[in-house]
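Figure caption, in words: inputs first, then the predicted bound structure.
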Amino acid sequence: MKGIFITFEGIDGCGKTTQAELLEIQLKQERRNIVLVREPGGTVISEQIRSIILDKNHNEMDPITETILLAASRAQLTEEIIIPNVESGNIVISDRYTDSTLAYQGFGRGLDITWLKNINKFATKDTDPDITILVDIPVEVAISRMEGKSFDRMEIEGNEFLKRVRKGYLHLAQDYSDRFIVVDGMKSIHEIQTQIWKSISKVITSNWIID
Ligand code: ADP
Ligand code: TYD
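Bound structure (adenosine-5'-diphosphate present):
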């Protein structure tokens, strides 16, 4: 039986890491084999690339350099973790994946979307998520949730940048409505968790047999 590949997406501070971790716990209780990874990162090599991308001293980084580093991190994660686990029948949850590049580098930075889709395809050997949970939240709320945290190179971009990214995500959710599930990030952690579980278990039972 093929496994399932689930991704979490949304602007910084939307609450997706909280939900990805809760889903991991819940699926483990169902005795499913789960692998939770994050992007950029998730392997030794990809975590090293992550530190180059997010280092706030690298403010001269060109958006194309940024994109290619993200793709390199993703290629390694996909080949080393995602493909083998999904092929072995496991559930892989990734905190961000290809849609982050379309939203941040495409809608946020203004790079060409078709070009970004091609680099995503190349880096992932055409691996698409089965389900993508978009945690949608207004930018101001997300920023207020990050108060007190030291900001990385992406997080210092500010409100207008994140507004374009949020809008981009909502576009992607329409374009790929077959795999996107949009949840309201303003609800409580527990309410969101319940909504995600309802949607996920529906998709899982209609496509895969749960033992
Ligand atoms: P992200 O991974 O999207 O950056 P996190 O899951 O790390 O977001 O959450 C950012 C902060 O917001 C954390 O302090 C977390 O506890 C809090 N948080 C997450 N979800 C909610 C929610 N639904 N309501 C209020 N606060 C939340
Ligand atoms: P991280 O701390 O993991 O995200 P979050 O703050 O949402 O928990 O930081 C990852 C940052 O990298 C985040 O600001 C989004 C950005 N990013 C891109 O710009 N493009 C991408 O393709 C990916 C995967 C991440």
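The chain has one domain: 4-206.
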